[in-house]
Automatic annotation (TrEMBL), chain A:
Alphabetized Pfam families for the sequence: CP_ATPgrasp_2
Domain Circularly permuted ATP-grasp type residue range list: 74-451
SUPFAM superfamilies hit by this protein: Glutathione synthetase ATP-binding domain-like
Protein source organism: Qipengyuania algicida
InterPro entries: ATP-dep_Glu-Cys_Ligase-2, CP_ATPgrasp_2, UCP005522
PANTHER family: BLR5612 PROTEIN, SLL1039 PROTEIN
Organism superkingdom: Bacteria
Protein name, per record: Circularly permuted type 2 ATP-grasp protein
UniProtKB/TrEMBL annotation, chain B:
Protein name: DUF403 domain-containing protein
Annotated PANTHER family: BLR5612 PROTEIN (PTHR34595), SLL1039 PROTEIN (PTHR34595:SF7)
InterPro entries, per database record: ATP-dep_Glu-Cys_Ligase-2, DUF403
Domain of life according to the entry: Bacteria
Residue span, DUF403 domain: 1-310
Organism: Qipengyuania algicida
Pfam families in the record: Alpha-E
Coiled-coil parts of chain: none
Length: 475, 314
């Protein structure tokens, strides 16, 4: 570790000393033998494979379930830093919900000329069925993941908002479980905020959004597309931890104005459904008629107050990459405050001038599809070959409105464990936020994703990224 | 509990039972074949394939039937949907389906076993490895049963799983007995003389009943006693009577939990009355084959009644 590292290192300062947040951890780490650490490193993988924490990768039929690499060196955030981040996250989530309510009602922000009408008109995530309807409790995005990146001591940016169905929370939980099982003594020495009550907090938050038709204690269910979905493990895990049923479309039916699940005792109504099925597949009567993953008629029940759908249909309109570039304006419009967490500078290729700039500087920029996710279909200029650049240029010229571009960020690095010792790798952070009518509840920490390849800036699990346990230190 | 989850638990344990029985049949077949010449040994493996209910699918693919061919077909052939490998994949899929209805230990027992069995059966199983393979498969079964009995709450999920075990066991044992008996039929006419003791020994081994039978009968191989043991002895955990006794208990527990009896309980009572009233002579008078066909039919009807009552399907 030396001053030659051009990126902000989460653990080490340029002169080789250790940052405060990592001091206790590093002391512990340094006291361990290389053999001990190597053995633990291998144990971790075995433990993940045994508990079956896997994800499926689309397009890989043979190895249908893969492990997300786990790195045993935690990413550590001190209490003060976390408080600052929390304030920024809370502000952003408040703005997202207000924005969604406005979009599906009076559209003040468009009338005020702060967001162009075309963004709605051209947005496939925009749902007419939601116009004029207010979901129970007025909440649109109940579970939010805000992707943050860091470039310097006090420089955090929001890279992306995940307002429709953020995933990864099960890794946050299992990473902690694994760390506690492998290094119990570490948690006795270092005061770390707990994350393991997340499922309970999620259940409570969802129950607080129950619809008017609820009688007694709200019945919560998790709707999964099924066991071949890439995040099935997470769906099962969350349902299990919440004590909720894990249902599929084929288990559900609309009966007497309620959505009901087929149990061994007959059909029983559900009050709140935490769906992990995309809007398009939710209701074959309202959306994709070929969908077998959803429930025919659920939208009618929803609009009549018979069920709460979390997150609300049509929420995706707030988190695509074209809207992202307007987030500073959106935050200001609804909160009356300057954004506490800045956006990454973004060029909208739909604007002619921006597009020209992007084309002129393609080799230095990161270009993303407006509606893409998971790291698919993006270009990382500095890492691309000449041929890749040329090919992407053609796509960009053909459909500039489908793309945005951002500078290649100097993402901070955090050491990972390798057979040769600690080595810096780029990281990001996805904190998870629960929204109910009374509270915005942010779990301390979140999921740290790490690019396992040296020099790589892509942290997505579908592209070989790994994860780390994330610690927020207690005061 | 969701009907789909109940279905997954039920079938998870049906498949597991069938897997264990397949492994036992291979084990018994090996023992038998070792004592035979080549021609007789082929016959023996054919009867193993038949007892496992795989004759048609096997014959469609193979003309000859060596041990190597037979056990590889039963253990891992891609064209055999009832291979141990394919069925264990089903066990695991069903466990994944019902993941939040089973304990962590049960899931780990299934997943651990699956990882090992997949590795074990990744390549053809040679003569040197078949013994190890069979014993590992049986151990996997023991491990999973231990995990469910030792860790699972006695809720409806537990009873669906156990019902799956016993309904499948009753079915498999009846089938093994029927097919083997059919093959042995000629020798039965020689009452009290030159019985093919080796064949009868195979039947006992196929259901892990050789030790128990010897304890009870001081090593006397007697066709009638063996059939009595496998059909009516309520002390032997793989007999038809024991399996149905256990099934009845588990279905009664489900009825208690749900607060009402259903058609499955009714059929169960009927089957039980029949079995408890009958003596071994009645079985032979009526014809063992006819008896077993009737038994299997009833067993299937109980299975269908369970699926219907507890809404396994939409």
């Amino acid at each position: 570790m030396s001053g030659q590292n051009e990126f902000f290192d989460e653990m080490h300062v340029g002169d080789g000393s250790i940052r405060d947040a990592y001091r206790d951890y590093h002391k512990w780490y340094s006291s361990k033998s290389a053999a001990f650490l190597k053995r633990k490193h291998r144990d971790a993988e075995t433990s993940f494979r045994r508990t079956g924490i896997t994800f499926n990768v689309y397009g890989e039929s043979e190895a249908e379930e893969r492990l997300i690499p786990f790195d045993m060196v935690p990413r550590i955030i001190d209490a003060g830093e976390w408080r600052r981040l929390s304030r920024g996250i809370e502000q952003r989530v408040r703005a997202l919900n207000a924005f969604l309510h406005d979009l599906y009602h009076r559209q003040e922000i468009i009338r005020a000329g702060r967001v162009p009408q075309r963004l709605l008109r051209d947005n496939p995530a925009w749902l007419r069925n939601m116009v004029g309807f207010t979901p129970p409790g007025g909440i649109y995005t109940h579970i939010v993941g805000i992707d943050l990146v860091r470039t310097g001591p006090d420089e955090f940016y929001v890279l992306e908002d995940n307002a429709r169905t953020p995933s990864g929370v099960s890794y946050m939980l299992e990473n902690r479980e694994t760390m506690m099982a492998m290094f119990p003594e570490l948690f006795m020495h270092v005061p770390v905020e707990t994350v393991s009550n997340y499922p309970r907090r999620l259940a409570k938050s969802l129950a607080a959004c129950a619809p008017p038709a609820t009688k007694g204690k709200p019945v919560v269910a998790v709707l999964t597309p099924g066991m071949y979905n890439s995040a099935y493990f997470e769906h099962a895990f969350l349902a299990d931890q919440m004590g909720a049923e894990l249902v599929e479309g084929s288990d559900l039916r609309v009966i007497n104005g309620r959505v009901a699940m087929r149990t061994t005792r007959g059909y029983q109504p559900i009050d709140v459904i935490y769906r992990r099925v995309d809007d398009e597949f939710l209701d074959p009567l309202s959306f994709n008629p070929d969908s077998v993953l959803g429930v025919p008629g659920i939208m009618d029940v929803y609009r009549a107050g018979g069920i709460t759908i979390a997150n609300a249909p049509g929420t995706g309109v707030s988190d695509d990459k074209a809207i992202y570039s307007f987030m500073p304006e959106i935050v200001e419009f609804y909160t009356g405050e300057k954004p506490l967490l800045p956006n990454v500078e973004t060029w909208r290729c739909a604007d002619e001038d921006s597009c020209r700039y992007v084309l002129d500087n393609l080799a230095e920029l990161v270009v993303k599809e407006v509606h893409g996710s998971g790291g698919y279909g993006m270009l990382i200029g500095p890492a691309a070959t000449k041929a890749e650049l040329a090919e992407f240029r053609k796509k960009l010229e053909a459909h500039p409105e489908n793309y945005i571009a951002q500078p290649t960020l100097s993402l901070s690095t955090c050491p990972i464990f390798t057979e040769k010792g600690l080595a810096p790798r780029h990281v990001d952070l996805r904190p998870f936020v629960l929204v109910s009518p009374d509270t915005i509840d942010i779990t301390p920490g979140g999921l740290t994703r790490v690019a396992m390849k040296k020099g790589s800036l892509v942290v997505n699990s579908s592209q070989g990224g790994g994860t780390k346990d994330t610690w927020v230190l207690k005061d | 509990m969701l009907g789909r989850t109940a279905n997954a638990l039920f079938w998870m344990f049906r498949y597991l039972e069938r897997i264990e029985n397949t492994a036992r049949m291979i084990d018994a077949g090996m023992r038998m074949a070792l004592t035979r010449d080549v021609v007789a040994s082929e016959e023996e493996w054919r009867s193993v394939i038949a007892a496992a209910g795989l004759r048609e699918s096997y014959d469609a693919r193979h003309a000859t039937c060596t041990g190597l061919q037979a056990w590889n077909f039963m253990l891992r052939d891609k064209d055999n949907p009832a291979s141990v490998l394919a069925m264990f994949a089903q066990v695991r899929e069903n466990a994944r389906q019902s993941r939040n209805a089973v304990t962590g230990e049960l899931w780990e027992a299934v997943n651990d076993s699956w990882i090992q069995i997949k590795k074990l059966l990744a390549r053809p199983v040679s003569e040197q490895r078949v013994g190890e393979a069979v014993s590992m498969i049986r151990q996997a079964g023991t491990l999973v049963h231990g995990a469910i009995v030792g860790t699972m709450l006695r809720n409806e999920g537990f009873y669906f799983a156990r019902a799956g075990t016993y309904i499948e066991r009753a079915d498999n044992v009846a089938r093994i007995l029927d097919i083997k008996y059919f093959l042995l039929l000629p020798s039965l006419t020689y009452v009290g003389s030159s019985l093919d003791t080796g064949q009868w020994d195979t039947i006992l081994r196929s259901v892990s009943g050789d030790r128990a039978y010897r304890w009870l009968n001081a090593g006397q191989i007697d066709a009638k006693r063996i059939v009595e043991f496998l059909v009516l002895d309520t002390r032997f955990p793989r007999s038809l009577a024991f399996s149905h006794g256990a099934l009845r208990e588990h279905l009664a527990a489900l009825a208690r939990i749900h607060g009402n009896e259903c058609k499955a309980n009714e059929l169960m009572r009927e089957a039980d009355t029949r079995l408890s009233k009958i003596g071994i002579d009645d079985v032979f008078d009526r014809g063992l084959h006819e008896f077993l066909v009737e038994f299997t039919k009833m067993n299937t009807a109980i299975g269908l009644a369970i699926a219907e009552e507890y809404r396994f399907h939409a």
